[in-house]
Amino acid sequence: MKIGILTSGGDCPGLNAVVRGAVLKGITVHGHEFVGFRDGWRGVVQGDVIDISRTMVRGIAKQGGTILGTSRTNPFDNGGGPEVIEAHLVRLGIDAIIAIGGEGTLAAANRLTDVGLKIVGVPKTVDNDLDATDYTFGFDTAVQIATEAIDRLRTTGESHHRCMVVEVMGRHVGWIALHAGMAAGAHAILIPEQKVSVEQIAQWVTQANARGRAPLVVVAEGFVPEHLESPHSPRGLDTFGRPRLGGIADKLAQELETRTTIETRATTLGYIQRGGVPSAFDRVLATRLGMAAIDAVVEDSWGTMVALRGTEILRVSFEEALGQLKSVPQERYDEAAVLFG
Amino acid sequence: MKIGILTSGGDCPGLNAVVRGAVLKGITVHGHEFVGFRDGWRGVVQGDVIDISRTMVRGIAKQGGTILGTSRTNPFDNGGGPEVIEAHLVRLGIDAIIAIGGEGTLAAANRLTDVGLKIVGVPKTVDNDLDATDYTFGFDTAVQIATEAIDRLRTTGESHHRCMVVEVMGRHVGWIALHAGMAAGAHAILIPEQKVSVEQIAQWVTQANARGRAPLVVVAEGFVPEHLESPHSPRGLDTFGRPRLGGIADKLAQELETRTTIETRATTLGYIQRGGVPSAFDRVLATRLGMAAIDAVVEDSWGTMVALRGTEILRVSFEEALGQLKSVPQERYDEAAVLFG
Amino acid sequence: MKIGILTSGGDCPGLNAVVRGAVLKGITVHGHEFVGFRDGWRGVVQGDVIDISRTMVRGIAKQGGTILGTSRTNPFDNGGGPEVIEAHLVRLGIDAIIAIGGEGTLAAANRLTDVGLKIVGVPKTVDNDLDATDYTFGFDTAVQIATEAIDRLRTTGESHHRCMVVEVMGRHVGWIALHAGMAAGAHAILIPEQKVSVEQIAQWVTQANARGRAPLVVVAEGFVPEHLESPHSPRGLDTFGRPRLGGIADKLAQELETRTTIETRATTLGYIQRGGVPSAFDRVLATRLGMAAIDAVVEDSWGTMVALRGTEILRVSFEEALGQLKSVPQERYDEAAVLFG
Amino acid sequence: MKIGILTSGGDCPGLNAVVRGAVLKGITVHGHEFVGFRDGWRGVVQGDVIDISRTMVRGIAKQGGTILGTSRTNPFDNGGGPEVIEAHLVRLGIDAIIAIGGEGTLAAANRLTDVGLKIVGVPKTVDNDLDATDYTFGFDTAVQIATEAIDRLRTTGESHHRCMVVEVMGRHVGWIALHAGMAAGAHAILIPEQKVSVEQIAQWVTQANARGRAPLVVVAEGFVPEHLESPHSPRGLDTFGRPRLGGIADKLAQELETRTTIETRATTLGYIQRGGVPSAFDRVLATRLGMAAIDAVVEDSWGTMVALRGTEILRVSFEEALGQLKSVPQERYDEAAVLFG
């Protein structure tokens, strides 16, 4: 049996560990052969593949990024579609696809499975916003990097008696902000799911300052303060028409400094959160997901995605996986809010 | 309401985050007062306490160890027992106890609750061997430290074409070895739950070497090879009659070198696995457990322990928590064994 | 003898290690007493001090920031000047001052020494721009943090076939960019000392891309490309009239993307470079400088600054120390340029 | 011109950065060709080489170990000697050798240069014991790893009120112990250069304990306490007759516990100090040394070694480099001793 693997969408720590897990299990236990589609769905649509040998996955579990390359190509655009893909699979002798990607990839995989392609999914989202799995790999690494960076920023804030505003990833959900903020002891955590006014934030900042602390505000990039226009409108698109990472921290820092008169500095962590050596947690999770994907292939579980529940790896259908975004529930936010102010 | 907190047994990354979570929730939400028993049950038995203010828990979530001190004192020995403890609690005006500790602490807390003391438990075991919770705090940090150390050892092994044997914590269960070994790509993982002969290990080492790899063996301290006497018997006790950390790696390295003629080196990670800055994962988990312990106190859930299931914090009775050791199940070992050899 | 210590200007990893070194040597060897001026020269001008005991410096060598607080106050402004300061010193019984700071602090200390105050200086600049010393503490930590961040960014760049532009500290000199860029293998390093055109940078980026690399550009915040207006002019001041950190990376990324058509992303590391746990190198250097400052005090070497030359700690006069900025020499830039393109 | 590179002796963080620096400078600036001798002098003696292309050195500066492999082979033994080597060089068309190694390698290179071989040396010693250079690469990384490990051990010591004894590398000189001990705030630093009695050490431990600290003892592996037989005699050789890493920490911990009655634990850091990702400092130093070795080759400076003095890279003759071991001078030990007790 010959299996094609692809990694799609934004890169994420743990992608290579998934590939390693799948390839080693497939080769060792089942005698599978493997190819990698280059740059995500682009490689599928264009039939652009490389052979993956056992040697090629050597030591890659600790490498960030993806050895297969990635892109944001949609398999139904760019001259793609099921017939074109099918033809490439037949030509290349590929029996099944393991697609590692986020919601877009799983939605596309769902449509392709409906017309008969044999696809198994592995969930990938640094933001941890997929509802069908407890955690996705990459999230733990991102939270760890953000927490270490915030630990560093605190000593600067304390030495200068400043308020520090830190922007972390999270366009639609606030999981990274919630966890890094709790870990680092933030005096305010701001996430897309929760409307909070600048007045309220300024009050938390003032309270922390009054207790002699250097106020720490952790804000998800997708947070929009109540009564303020979206920070994404004026500078939301770059010269190539793509949405821009960042922005809210700068704006918020200015607003807070004006209202509280406490010197305030903004830092946007940006891409450092998604690159580099994955945490041990993510390597283990990703390896297990890769191996479980092979089990799904062997058992003809097409149209399913592997997922973590508690300490177990299960399978859920693409439909179920695509149900809705996993946002931060009210009780988790309230729990963190105990630390505010 | 006045709550006494204690940390008992071996130190563990995250203890201070539990204390912070409990104290901040108790003070902020419920107006509780807090004291800390010094050095675990010793402080309870002797009525030796310090006041814990909000200021005292400032920034401690990222500190390893425990600001309260710890010991291995049993509350029924050393002049202790329920009457003595009760008398101290009355004298000090303490209404309830939050006991952070492992199996010994929970068993003692169970006996004390049976005779009427008001105790809530928080599970603590670096080894992750408590059955009633998915994970315990400290485990993630230990796995991360071990994985980073093993990553370092690999480059030495590869440069010298050596086999590297690494001993990690795990006297009765192999969770740290399993996770660190999977994360680092070990060619053999040896745990107390699995009998493996030295012949089998030597074969894995030889296979890895034949494929051009520097063989990597990760062994839990409590592993005993089949047909070999326990490494703990000859040098198992130190001059004070206490069990010694380490030992199996040295012995195994010699055996493997003799059998395979591959130059082999042993490293025992030891105490570095349990000290220092906790991972973000452990800080979040520990903070949540500390807060949940306050909920249990407020709801008079005496005799229960807070526990992680999936992403939720639940309560389980001490009896349930003490049921049995959580050992590595066969399927998890088989999963890791795909990477062996 | 009673010594007052102050830390002035931007915070810097290692400040606390200087304080520890000075205080432990002074107390242990000479029986000195110590006070800390709060928030740099502000504490001197206002006579605002705290006692420093041996207990207070316990374990602080590994803490970022400064336990004394810092500010950008000038001792000749804000109601200061030699008479006011002298009066405070007499009132507080302070015999000598150890001033830890950058060029501004040393210049002020020089003027104060000229009128008879007893001051010894310890050089502090994250940017490493003081000519009289081989290295200043904090620089090594900043380079290490920047290098680790760039290592992370590379895997993202490689997975997406993007050019990554990273902005590091260095308003007037490019030492951090030079070292982090060499360590991380940058395809272009851009520093204030070297005029380079955008055309040239675009050519290096294109060359690296042609060889299959994800181009990496490391730029010091103070770099100004030839033929481009200063990035600091339009957005150089914030609402409080202070110069803004950052800016060149965003602008450069847009220019490079336009010229090369290679997808390009900017990251500004900002404050994370100057906070948090100091590297071992910086802790040793800072400790030694603190101890050497006590030697200078004991030997009445007023008006001198301690400095590193090779592996030795020497003294140089304030005049010599203030001679000129230590900029990156041409041969060091040429050396790094071997890696470009 | 065709240059052969070898890495010899124990592996060391930065070896690959030297190779990268040399190869990129040679190829880019001078059009050199490169081969690597496999496994140090073994590859020279046997004429066993691999081609080194520009692609092969891609991204290796951040990899620990050596891509060329290493061994402890002596070029005059194992069928070697100048004639055999000369013959291989002629056959392979190799014009010059860059030998990266410690004292043994430089001594061998010296003898080979004397009979006409064209060799340039690059100093390599994790222990930093070469007299002709301020620092050697690898030393900074080792000190950093040791310091981070000791930081972790402290929190365990403090929680349990224990004395922690940590053994670091340093068979003949104590530089790693000196620097890591100063950085981490050790209450005793024990190095081969300084005779100290167990009584004295026990006194320091007792003093620190009396001040409420958890005593921290950092000991170099080659330290021998006064009045105690060498710890290397009973267990100094393993089953293959090689000297064993470690030993003194265990012995010392027992002695100290017996004398002070303070619970004491030993940790031997071992191989983790020499593997893994090099620090930025070491990457920069190693890259510069590699480039400077090419300059030496181009200028026919045979029989010289590149070396760091202050911030400059110079050349010294092999004779000068081999003069004597660089041991820790008395004044540096006295400086650190201010922190003892």
UniProtKB/TrEMBL annotation, chains A, B, C, D:
GO CC annotation terms, alphabetical: 6-phosphofructokinase complex
Task: Please name the Pfam families in this protein's record.
Answer: PFK
Q: Which InterPro entries match?
A: ATP_PFK, ATP_PFK_prok-type, Phosphofructokinase_dom, Phosphofructokinase_III, PKF_sf
Its Enzyme Commission number?
Answer: 2.7.1.11
Active site annotation, chain numbering = 127 (proton acceptor)
Q: Which cofactor does it need?
A: Mg(2+)
Compartment list: Cytoplasm
Q: Which SUPFAM superfamilies match?
A: Phosphofructokinase
Listed under catalytic activity are: beta-D-fructose 6-phosphate + ATP = beta-D-fructose 1,6-bisphosphate + ADP + H(+)
Domain Phosphofructokinase, chain residue ranges per copy: 2-297
> Which positions bind substrate?
125-127, 162, 169-171, 221, 265, 271-274
Q: Where is this site: Important for substrate specificity?
A: 104
Q: Where does ATP bind?
A: 10, 72-73, 102-105
Residues that hold Mg(2+) according to the record: 103
Q: Which terms does the UniProt entry file under GO BP?
A: canonical glycolysis; fructose 1,6-bisphosphate metabolic process; fructose 6-phosphate metabolic process
On assembly, the entry states: Homodimer or homotetramer.
The record's function comment reads: Catalyzes the phosphorylation of D-fructose 6-phosphate to fructose 1,6-bisphosphate by ATP, the first committing step of glycolysis.
Among NCBIfam families, the record links this protein to:
PFK_mixed, PRK03202.1
Q: What protein am I looking at?
A: ATP-dependent 6-phosphofructokinase
Name the gene for this chain.
pfkA
